[in-house]
Prior knowledge:
11 helices
Amino acid sequence: MRWENLTGGPGGPAGLFGADAVVTRTVDTPEFRGITFHEVRARSIVNRVPGASRMPFEWTVNPYRGCSHACVYCFARKTHSYLDLDTGLGFDSQIVVKTNAPELLRRELGSPRWSGAHIAMGTNVDCYQRAEGRYRLMPGIIEALRDRANPFSILTKGTLILRDLPLLQEAAEVTEVGISVSVGFTDPGLWRTVEPGTPSPAARLAAVRALTDAGIECGVLMAPVIPFLGDSPEQLRATVRAVAESGATSVTPLVLHLRPGAREWFTAWLGAHHPHLVPRYERMYAGGSYAPTWYQRRITRQVHELAAEFGIGPGRRGAPRRIVTPERPEGSGPAGATQLSLL
């Protein structure tokens, strides 16, 4: 593993991690069997999104690299190659944990140079993957954002987000907090093969219901819509209906895209499970990482029509950003935070 390319020694150039701050652990418990954690001390945690990105935000926080959700289509797989780690099974089982993420974020938010811009989380790998159950980085991250009333959003497939519901409610009182749950389909068979490490779609939609019932508006990113496997009219209708029944404030479809790293792994999976579809995918993605525009527009139109039929509307805008200090029990932490929608 080429950690030396990403570390900065004394007196040398700054790196992503401290030169002597990588600890590798293997945890032999049923929930983490086969997973190796590389604990690092990050040098920075707020990352600027490249200008060429299609993302609708400029800043992100990613406390983990690699993801035990093991989604065969995950576009972030390529990032593991930067560490000389495998983008297939290695991405699923070799998890980099930035153990100092909460304290580092608090420091960076307090810098005079920080403008208070919206911060997106869960846009690279899921911040509520299984590792979060062990390392508990997100409570400290949300607290830091709350205390600065800094707008943020979270995209997740993890039902573990419900653990932090009280913190999200506190944050939403002082800033905009946007929560989106990713549910691309409700087909149990498809879920078990393409997203084997995630909670079921039904469990995720139950989390949406719990969030909305608690006063936290939550949208659904219907992603990915998988061509020829999850895009039939019947499948789209079933998914949008289930999203509507969950109480989601919005539903936004996103067709599968296959960037380098993910493309090779997904193609291998497709060849093993649905070999008859390989030629169709080669034609559909011959132009690059994205499905043809006509196909994306067709899926978007169908989902929007179904959303209108089932009464899913746009989410309400949040309150203006402000910092307040509510009364809290003596000895408890400070208050403040925010939430912005990705949708």
